[in-house]
Amino acid sequence: MPAGTFHALKIEAEGTWVAELEPTQGVVQGVQRDQGSVTMITKAQNTRATTATGRTYKAFWYVPDVKRWVKSVEEYYGDNGVRNERYTNELESFKPAT
Fold it and tell me: Does residue 34 register a pLDDT over 90?
């Protein structure tokens, strides 16, 4: 539930992010059946360290009377342009200083 209605200044920013992904190892297993015999196949795969990139969007609604932001939105997009994460926060209560 929002804390109320305020006259706010909306601040927006866009940018890019870069992440260094560590090398990993994966294991794939399978079974092959031939004329009554069963063969188990195991394959280990190593991946190299890679770099992932994307873009970010952030918006904050700052209220001078409250002296802080009252709402924020953060969005993170992968290199394919698809949004992976979205976070929204809102001020829930406010008591003016007396």
Answer: no
Cβ contacts of residue 4 below 8 Å, gap of 6+?
94
The whole-angstrom separation of Cα 57 and Cα 84 is 12
Per-residue pLDDT of 39-54, as tens digits, reads 888 888 888 898 999 9
Domains of the chain, residue spans: 9-20+50-90
What's the predicted TM-score (pTM) here?
0.62
Side chain identity at 33, as an amino acid letter? R
| CA distances, 6 to each of 11, 36, 66 (Å) | 15, 76, 9
C-alpha 42 chain-centroid distance: 33
